[in-house]
Amino acid sequence: MxxxxxxxxxxxxxxxxxxxxxxxxxxxxYLDCLIDHFFxxxxxDIKTLFQSHSFIITTGHSSNIFIAAKLISLYSSFNxxxxxxxxxxxxxxxxTFLWNSIIKSHFSNGDYPNALExxxxxHFSQILPNPFTIPxxxxxxxxxxSFKYGQSIxxxxxxxxxxxxxxxxxxxxxxxYSKCNDMxxxxxxxxxxxxxxxxxxxxxxxxYVQNDEWENGLDCIRKMHxxxxxxxxxNFRTIEGGLQACGNLGSLLSGRCLHGYAVKTGNGSSxxxxxxLLSMYAKCGNSEEAxxxxxxxxxxxxxxxTTIIGVYARNECIxxxxxxxxxxxxxxxxxxGIIISCILSGFGNSTRVNEGKAFHGMIIxxxxxxxxxxxxxxxxxxxxxxxxxxxxxxxxxxCEWDTESWNHMISGYSRLGLETKCLELxxxxxxxxxxxxxxxxxxxxxxxxxxxxxxxxxxVHCFVIKNGKGDxxxxxxxxxxxxxxxxxxxxxxxxxxxxxxDIVTWxxxxxxxxxxxxxxxxxxxxxxxxxxxxKPNSVTLKIFLSACSHLAALEHGKRVHTYIKEMGLECxxxxxxxxxxxxxxxxxxxxxREIFDMMPERDVISWNVMISGYGIHGDAKAAVELFQQMExxxxxxxxLSFLAVVxxxxxxxxxxxxxxxxxxxxxxxxxxxxxxxxxxxxxxxRAGNLREAEDLVxxxxxxxxxxxxxxxxxxxxxxxxxxxxxRVAKRAIESDPENDGYxxxxxxxxxxxxxxxxxxKMRGEMKKRxxxxxxxxxAIGTTHVLKSSVEHHLxxxxxxxxxxxxxxFRSLERKSERLDAKILKNKARVDLQVExxxxxxxxxxxxxxxxxxxxxxxxxFGEEEFPEVSRFPGMAQIIDKMGFASLxxxxxxxxxxxxxxxxxxxxxxxxxxxxxxxxxxxxxxATDGMIHMFSILMSAGLQITGWPAHDSAMSSxxxxxxxxxxFSLGSDGKIFEWSLQNQGQVLWSxxxxxx
Length: 995
Prior knowledge:
alpha+beta; 5-stranded antiparallel sheet; 48 helices; disordered N terminus; WD repeat
């Protein structure tokens, strides 16, 4: 008021006293002109406003409510809400209009607390608000996230009836609830509105977008457009919200539709829409359309330049980013730290080391501002280049370290596999009391996972809980992944059940189960996720397909293939590649090739998977042809490409082709790895060139590992070269003393040569070193797994409740043979296909058509493909059922039929086959409930005995430990132990269906 009094004296002194004492009529007319001028003409500066205000006070018009409201509005426009308040307080009698003016003055200047305080005074002064008051006060509540206050105003609006037929009031509440993250009440408010306008629709759309419910936001725009007669068409603000949702979802198609709608309705020229279009295309990774949108912008500000440079940098188009950067400098737009950081990030992603260093020099020469963001980006770039020495120098020279600086260094060490260094740096952070953020903890937990250091991971877990970060979903996901990588699935599952879940959480646990060989649990968890209405993304589907490949779960894989088609995900290159891999490993080579041929684009990984598929199925010729086709189309092969094709040649015995391809790696500047050398050793060794294989190992530029020695040892076993085998086995065991395969190969080689004492000695050495024979497995269909070691039998006995049989099943560990088979039921008799796949790697010299990695049998003898194949590697025989009329025994070395075992004119279906230990007697269970015994040494292969065993069809059969008894399992769940000396005598029985 002192300032007003001073201005009043100055203006009063400028008026002549003669004028003030003149006639009343002349004075009144002049004052009216001045007041009219005050209301109708804009005031350009604050000084003029002060003069006008002083004149109003001098002439006694300061108590006029309309003049006071005008003054309040003018002071508000000059960002002087405090002067507005003084004007307001000078009025004795205030009406609703004046209260609205002072509330608007504070609200428009961002003084939301005072706006609410004034509204409270209005309420206590018994002055009722009107429909113009409520939207401003509710918007102030929204900006302050004052949910409770907003709810109380909602009650006031309901009592006064302002929500009936007033779209502005209703829209303000939709906006308030959405700003307070309560979209349920926001939609309820919107749904209850009797009248809606474009503002109410836009408030709901933007609310959904700001609360990360992007799909609901797009759906709201669709409904708004469809109800054009009921509501209004989207305006530029609605389109802006929709484009933001499309960008966050990566929905390029929906974004293009909105773009077309904006152009059609004339909103495409809006600066806000143009900026949103650029941002949307950038987030969708479409640099071409983003550039078109950028060029159409008339006014290109710093944000626009940052967006377009950033999208090219993220897409590793660093050349285009630099061109735009120079263009920005020509346009006299000064770059800030964000733009420079984008370009540095682009250099890091492109691994263009020299140009990145040159750009660093340019930053220094041009004296660009090196703020903390730029320094961190420089460290990140050098870490990505692998230049940790330069990154460390920058890190050490920092005057002030922030958490992001530490994170970049930890990430750089992790990228180069220096996980121990990551943990040391994290410890140093704690000593210096640098607060670890979410990114720090995620990186450290990743390092613990890579080191399989669960004790360190638990320590980090305790640190997370102690610092109250356990509720963060990213950290929870990392913890689940860490325990999964450390093979502690129990804790991983418990943690999964306790934390808040998103799609990454589900993916992490499913991946953990798959990574640890629990593919059945992974498939079950996927079903649980779908039941919980969690929509799988492409990462989920890739993990699921990997589990299907592991289990040979073809039907599950086919269902995922259908889902991929329905969701339009066939353009996802990595997902389709995973689909091809699944079909390959499930034996559907032709179908996988069809999908491969239909791919619109292929990368080197796709080619590698298909080449490897042909190798797995023993078609080395097709693998080599596909490799050549890849080269002809200009796709540069990598190390895995050569590994796949050389491996295919090794399995098929194509020595000349394999050697040629191996030495062609030099043409592509690819240095052979240990796996490449192992394949070459395997190729030469299988062909009998053992001396050449050993010379290759001795001449390797890198030290051979267990895999290389193991390949040579396998070849020695194939060709019964005991002398070299002993020499190689010693080196192999020194390289990998925990690998049971070396001991088993030597034992089998000694046994095949009749060196029983050496075989027993090797078994003793294996036992002395504490090396256990790992369980082989075979997956049948999608629900059953057969194990060939004691683990399966112990589980079986525990299930049937006879733990006293432990000694018998323990002895099976020494006597059980590895089962590897592919069984195809004859479709003419049974409309069912069951496939059995194994993890066992065979060591016999297989003929073409049998892959030693997968155990799949695809060979055709003559013109007929056998409907059932069973192979027992330890006995060098293959039992093959032709039709269901006979059994043929094949010699695995000559692939000639040794004998035929007739089953009669109307034979039953055989459900299980089992040799005794010396391989002289074959037992078969059948659907007629009979046990059939055959002698494979008799020329006619006649049935030597048989007796009825079950009232129902039999499921499986197994010889006892001393071969004086035989066990049988019926489809009704009954288990019997039969005496072989007194056929038909039951020694023991149990009904497993009751357990």
